[in-house]
Amino acid sequence: MKRKWSKFERALAITAVIGAASACTAAPAQAFSFLTPWNGPVEVKFINWEQETPGTGNGNGIIDAAGEQLDGILKIKTISAANSNSTLLWFDGKDGEELTGTFSGYTAGNVAFNPFLGALEMDFTGGGFNLYLDNTPDFDATYPGAGVTDGILFLSAAGATGIHAFDNPFTAGFDETTATLHSTATGFTSPFTGNGTGYLEITGGAYASLFGVDTFGPGRDLYLNSDFSAPGNDGWPVKSDDPVIGTVVPEPGTLLLLGSGIIGLGLMGRRRFKK
Ligand SMILES: [Ca+2]
Ligand SMILES: [Ca+2]
Ligand SMILES: [Ca+2]
Questions:
Q1: Among 26-35, 150-159, 227-236, which is the least confidently predicted range?
Q2: Torsion 25-213-35-74 (CA) sign
Q3: What is the pLDDT of residues 110-130, one digit of tens each?
C-alpha cells in the first residue's frame, strides 16, 4: 500500500539530502574503506624498508655516525582499535586499497656507545613521512621501490620532540630535547638489531582530520615504536616494523550531517509553531 509522506517525514528527508550533500563536499576526493564508527586510540602496524640516505654518510647502508640521514619506504599492514579485542578497522588490500609512503630527513645528531647498556645509542632530529592512499594497488618494495607515492596524499607528519625530557650532560654538543627519534642498537655487529621510539605531528593530507591531535601532549599526535634489523628485504640495507599509536576522531562530514539535521528540525519546529 502506498502511503503519503507526512510533512514531518518530507522535511526530514529534505534535511537528510541537504546533510548528505554537505557531507559529500566536505569529504576527501578518494574514499577510504575505514571501518566506522570508531572514536578512540588506534594502533597502526607497518613495514619499513630503510637505509642510510645515499651521500649523507659513510655509505655502509646503516646509521652509525653523526650527520647520517635515514630514509625509506613504508607500507601500512593494519589499523586496529586499541580496545580489548583489537577490532580490525582497516587492512592492506581492503576494498582494493593500499597505504604506502616515504619517510626521510631523520638526521643522526648524536651516535654514542653506551657502556651501561652495551649498545649504540642514536638520536635523530627532523624527519617525517608522507602516506598515500591508492585504490589501484601497485606497490613494489624492490629497491628503490615503485608505486609508492601514487594515489592521493593521505597523511603527512613531521618528527616531533619529546622523546627525551632532558639534555644529557654526557653528550656534549647535542641537546637531547631536540630529538625526534631515539634508537638503541643492541646487536651492532651482524646481525644489526635495535629499537627506535619517537613522536610525530600530523601536518597535512586528505585524511589528516580523521586523526586526533595532541594525543601525547602539545604538538605530538602519533607515537612511533619500531624494531629494526639488518640486512633488510628486497635489496634494502635495513628493515623495521610495528607500531604507531594515534587517536581517531569522528569525521567532520559526520558532524556536519548531524549539525544540518538539527538545524533542519529546528526550522521545521518554528514553521509549525507559526501556524
Ligand atoms: Ca653509515
Ligand atoms: Ca601505489
Ligand atoms: Ca647532550
A1: 26-35
A2: positive
A3: 999 888 888 889 999 999 999
- Whether residue 20 is found in the same domain as residue 46: no
What local confidence, expressed as pLDDT, does residue 23 receive? 42
Give the H/E segment covering residue 268. Answer: helix 252-274
Distance CA 53, CA 60 (A): 10
Q: What does the alpha-carbon distance between residue 169 and residue 160 come to, in Å, rounded to a whole number?
A: 22
Strands 152-160 and 192-204: antiparallel
Distance 6 CA to ligand 3 centre (A): 73
Domain count across the chain? 2
What is the CA(56)–ligand 1 centre distance, in A?
8
Q: Do residues 137 and 236 both lie within one domain?
A: yes
* Residue 124 CB burial class (10 angstroms; 0-12, 13-18, ≥19): buried
- 56 and 170 within one domain: yes
Q: pTM for the complete prediction?
A: 0.80
pLDDT in tens, 21-77: 344 444 556 788 887 678 889 999 999 999 999 999 999 999 989 999 999 999 999
Residues, CB-to-ion distance under 5 Å, ligand 3: 167-168, 171, 174
Pairwise CA distance, residues 119 & 153, whole Å: 37
Phi, psi values for residue 180, rounded to 5°: -105, -10
- Ligand 1 centroid–CA 97 distance in Å is 35
